TrEMBL record:
Ranges in a coiled coil: none
Extent of the signal sequence: none
Record domain Plastocyanin-like: where: 66-169, 345-460
Keyword Oxidoreductase tagged: yes
Keyword Membrane included in the entry's annotation: yes
InterPro entries documented for this protein: Cu-oxidase-like_N, Cu-oxidase_C, Cu-oxidase_fam, Cu_oxidase_CS, Cu_oxidase_Cu_BS, Cupredoxin
Keywords: Membrane, Metal-binding, Oxidoreductase, Transmembrane, Transmembrane helix
Name assigned to this protein: Multicopper oxidase domain-containing protein
Family: Belongs to the multicopper oxidase family.
Organism this protein belongs to: Pallidibacillus thermolactis
Amino acid sequence: IVGGGLLLYSWGVFATSFKKANNDTLVTKQQTLPIPPLLEDKNPAPNKAEFEITARDGTMEFFEGIITNTRGYNGNFLGPVIRVRTGEEVSVKVTNELDESTTLHWHGLEVDGENDGGPHNEIKPGETWNPMFTINQPAATLWYHPHQMHKTGKQVYEGMAGLFYIEDEVSDSLKIPKEYGVNDVPLIIQDRRFDGDGQLDYELGMKDSIVGFEGHTILVNGAVNPFVEAPQGMMRLRILNGSNGRIYNLKFSNGQEFYQIASDGGFLEKPVRMDSLTVGSGERAEILVDFSKVAMGETVELQDQGISFMSFVVNQASDKVYSIPEKLTTIEKIDERKATTKREFNFQGTGSSVSINGVQMDMDRIDEEVNLGSTEIWEVGNFTGQTHPFHAHGVQFQILDRNGNPPPDNEAGWKDTFLVKPGENVRVIATFKHEGIFMYHCHILEHEDAGMMGQFLVEP
Ligand code: C2O
Ligand code: CU
Ligand code: CU
């Protein structure tokens, strides 16, 4: 009887963790927000940088006593932050220690196709890929992740993603928080589904969703429900929606306002006051939030549709030197009359038949040919019943209009990924400054993997 009782008891403990791991309300141990390390630049020369990144298997303890198999870059889950400056010549050695092929794509970076890390830049197990590029764009928060054909969703899900910061004279001169991990904090937001053994179950999350992967547990920088100590003053948050498919609507639990200062491709001209922020998968937003009216010791939670998934414990004294800047940068509007070509991209289909313009991705087919140096207007339509994030490689867009209306202020800067609602028509403009083969696709990774992707070739 005693033995049976013990058995029941240990089963009970297991069942509790199991329930925790699958619980929609995110009950778990409290832990501090992990801050990804800054990757060391191995080249001492100014204006030159050299980095080493290794894709590898790892393990994490997301839940007390449960070891979860993961993957990461130079570590167990996610990757280090790569920080470079505009004008810098960068070389990265990317080694694949996984047992399957992968690629490493620089999302948002303006580089030639051969350095972009798309599906054509396959790195076989045991091999090293060495992209080289010069940073040719303003300060921004970009990111990197695998782009292996049909495997992007699974590999990102297992933990492969990292941030890529560009700094420049503008970011140097702005009086905004810049102390990495202290008052300038990255938030990589991702949803996950754990099975009964606490393993990341990709298939499970796919099963009951036609909209792409959906998880019940939100991770921030690879932690469940973390907290971070915050100053009783200004904090800068660099938010990446690194989820496979989920769109977040973020708010603070005390309802307080904040200011968006940057979109995907860099600073906005002026801070935009907001009380909620929508981010689709692949999108980034930098915000300034001022906790000076929060009482010392109080906690403010960050929520998605009313559900808290991380907290800020306001317990650090602030020297109160920051205010919201009047102006951040100057963005030269691309003149519509400069556009020489207009193209249409229409999201169509559902489930495994998702497509763009009725065709699915074929690595041997070039869908669009763009003249190097030309300016084009791309018009993205959505003939499906769900919202899709449109993304293109190697280029930053300006949004001209959404259904004929000017974009909201927080989308009036550089964008490489933007949401397109059912029935919506979004017109964007860009100048194509880099040569090679590039992808455009839906950034719901399951849609991308299913073929909601095409290729454009940029050449003289
Ligand atoms: Cu973030 Cu084609 O990717
Ligand atoms: Cu990309
Ligand atoms: Cu999609």
